[in-house]
Specification:
Elements lengths: L4 E2 H9 L1 H9 L8 H17 L21 H10 L2 E8 L5 E2 L8 E11 L2 E8 L6 H16 L5 E8 L7 E7 L3 H16 L29
The structure holds iron/sulfur cluster.
């Protein structure tokens, strides 16, 4: 049974329930690939620059680095806001904030950047790799949980920054407080499908080629 979740867990489940079982319930190793490691590297650089740990963006000699210097103005503006960075928080089943590691943590979230701005709360998520329509759903969840964390805010303004494409490439989502309850109800229902699953059927598809549990990689699955 999967009864604690994050957006990434839910996406894994929805792409293939059996993969979620292998990874989350059976805890089989699922090593991060090079794309994930690359994303982690640039998240860390931006966290340290915006947080003032790094006085300047470090020179990057890696092949195909994202054009981070083009973000300097935006990053410097973020520095001024003194946002929370890589902020970890969890929510109970009643969507109340709780500690990330608390026993009653049900939904977990990590915000790359979050800060209040008058009657708004702003969330920024750094993305490496290509834009995807799925990202809009993730922004909706960020927006809803950000409004819970900031009861004074009337609006949540959330954006993905696609680092490989430059500062013009963003995906934005706005949620007003009067839409919050509907969003939470929808996400609760969506998660319930995963929570009540006892079969975890395989859902083979093109995504099998990235799956560590695929047959051709020596994994336990009969597919892939
Ligand atoms: S190989 Fe495909 S069907 Fe098998 S667990 Fe992985 S994603 Fe699911």
């Amino acid at each position: 049974m999967i009864n604690k979740w994050s957006y990434s867990r839910l996406k894994t489940y929805e792409s293939c329930p059996q993969k979620a079982k292998y990874k989350i319930i059976d805890k089989l190793p699922d090593p991060a690939g090079p794309a994930a490691a690359r994303g982690t590297k640039y998240h860390k650089i931006l966290e340290e620059y915006v947080g003032g740990v790094l006085p300047a963006l470090p020179p990057d000699l890696a092949p195909n680095p994202p054009p981070l210097p083009a973000y300097l103005d935006k990053l410097n503006a973020l520095r001024e806001k003194k946002p929370k960075l890589e902020y970890q928080i969890a929510f109970t089943r009643e969507w109340k904030p709780t500690d990330f590691f608390a026993d009653n943590a049900w939904a977990r979230a990590v915000y790359d950047v979050i800060y209040p701005n008058k009657y708004e709360v702003q969330v920024i998520d750094y993305k490496t790799g290509r834009p995807s329509p799925d990202h809009l759903q993730q922004l909706e969840l960020y927006a809803a949980t950000a409004l819970i964390l900031h009861p004074e805010a009337e609006l949540a303004m959330c954006a993905d920054w696609y680092l490989d494409n430059g500062p013009h490439s963003t995906l934005e989502f706005v949620l007003a407080r009067n839409g919050l309850q509907d969003v939470l109800t929808r996400w609760t229902a969506r998660v319930q499908v995963m929570e009540t699953d006892t079969v975890f059927p395989a859902r083979p598809g093109r995504h099998c080629s990235y799956c560590a549990f695929a047959k051709k990689k020596g994994g336990p699955c009969q597919f892939g």
